[in-house]
Amino acid sequence: MTGDNIFHLSLALHLCSALLFLSGRQRWALWVLVAGGVCLRYYFATVDPFLHDWDERFHALVAKNLSQHWLLPTLIDQPVLPYAPRDWTTEHIWLHKQPLFLWQMALSIRIFGATEFAVRLPSLIMTSALILIVYRIGRQVFSGVTGYIAAFILSCYEPLLEMNSGMLSMEHNDIAFVFYITLSVWAWIYFEQRRSRRYLLLMGFFAGCAVLCKWLTGLLVFSGFIFYHLFLTRDFFTKNTLVSLAKALGICMLTFLPWQLYILCQYPAEAHFEYAYNSNHFFRVVEGHRHEAWFYLNILPDYYRGLQYLIGVALLVTLLPGRRSRLSAALSFMFILVYAFFTIAQTKLPSYVMMVVPIGLLLISAVIGGLLSSVWHHCVLRYIAGSVLFIALLLRFINWPLIVENHFATDTWQGFTRAYLQPRADMYRSVAGHLPPSSVIVNLEPHQEINAMFYIGVPAYSECGIAGYHFLRAHHYNIIYGGDTLPSYAAGDTAARLLKSYVPQ
Questions:
Q1: How are beta strands 478-481 and 496-498 bridged, if at all?
Q2: 497 DSSP β-pair partners
Q3: CA gap 51, 165 in Å, rounded
Q4: Mean pLDDT estimate for the chain
Q5: pLDDT one-digit tens code per residue, 44-80
Q6: What would you measure as the largest C-alpha separation in the chain, in angstroms?
Q7: Please, how many CA atoms are within 13 Å of residue 320, restricted to the half-sphere of its CB?
Q8: DSSP sequence for 256-321
C-alpha cells in the first residue's frame, strides 16, 4: 500500500469512527479511531526517508550508539580526531538530554536496524497510545463525549504528527515527554477517584519517566496534586495526603535518581556542565532563542488552530468558584502554570509548552462537548451537527496545506532542505559496508558527519585540514573525502579517496 493510500485510509477511518461515535457505539468508535491514528502516524514516520536536521539526527546517532553500549551515551562514538568539548553537536560523551527516550529508540534500532523508521517507531507507538490515554482522562474528568472529541483531535493533530516525522525540533524527545506527563496525570486522576495505591505508585513512576526524558518540568503532576489538595479539597496537611505525596515522590525519585548518580560518578565534568546548562535556560537566553515576552500566547493559534479562545472559556468555567469540578480545575491550573513558567523563562522555544497540549485539547473539547451534548438526544440534529463538527475538526487540525508545504513543495525552505538531505542519505546508505577497514570520512558539510556516522557507521568529520590528514596517515587510516575533488595535499595518495567513488554503479 502506497503512502497516499495509507493517508486516505486514515482519513476514512477517522470519519468512520466519528459516525460510530454519533450512533452511540463508543467502544467501536474508539478502536477505529486508534486504527486511523496508527495509519496516520505510520504515514508520517515514513514520509521523509532521511534524518531531519534539528534535532533528529543527533538523537538518532546517540540512540544507535546506545544500542551497542546501554550505559555509555556517546555522539561521536570513536573520536579519532580532536572534538570540541561542551558542545552538544560535536561531543563524545553526550548528556545533553536525559536518556529514556534514547533508550527506547536504541531498543528499536537494536531490533529493526539503523533506519529512519526504527528511530521513529517508539514515537509512533507513544502518540498512538496517547489517543486512548486522553480519552480516558476526558471521560473521567468531564464526560465520554469530551474524551472522544479530545482523542479525535489528538489523533489528527498536525504538530504532534510532524514531531513523529522528525521534522519539528526536539521531536522524539518531546513526544516521550508529553507521553509520560500525560500518563502521570491519568494515573493521578484515577488515584483521586478510586483511591487505589496502584495508581499512586504509577503516578510517581510515570512522573519519574518524564523527568528521565526532559528533566524537572516532568514533575508537573505534583503541582496538580498539591493544588488539588491544598486549595480544593483542603486536606493537604492531613496524614493520608502527606503520606500519599511522599510515596509518589519516593517512587518518582527511585525512577530518575539512579541515572543522575551514575553520570555524576562516571562523567562528573560532563554531568555538572549539563545541569548548569539546563538551569541557564531559565535565567538567560541560550543558543539565541530569544522571543518577545508574550511569545507563547502569540503562538496559541499555531497549536490550537483558532480554537484557543475556547481554552479561555474552559479556564473560566473550571476555575470559577461554585461551578468548577475539582479535577478539571487542577488540570486548568497545570495548564496555566506551564505557560506562566515558560513565559518567565528567558529562553523560549515553541515546543516547550507542548507538554500541556493534551490538557489544552481536553479544555477545548470540554466546551465543544458541552455544546454537542445539548443536541445529543435529538437524533437528526446530533448526526448533522456531529458530522459537520468532526469533518471541520479533521480538516482544521490535520492542516493538509501545511503538510504539503513541509513535505512535498519544492519552492519552500523545507523543499530546499529535502533536496539537500535526501540525496546524501541515499548516498550514505549505498556506501555502507563498502568502505575499506579503518576508514575515516572527512570534509563533509557541517553536521553531515552526524548523518554519515548513523548510516555508514565509521568516524566522520566536517573538517580535517592538512594537520588532520597527516595525523590520520600516520595512524594508517584510510581517508575518505566528501565533496567532488581531493585536496591538493592528498592528491595521489592511495589511502585517500572520494566518498562518491564507493557508490555502487
A1: parallel
A2: 480
A3: 9
A4: 94
A5: 999 999 999 989 999 999 999 999 999 999 999 999 9
A6: 84
A7: 7
A8: HHHHHHHHHHHSHHHHHHHHHHHHHHHHS--TT----TTHHHHTHHHHHTT-HHHHHHHHHHHHST
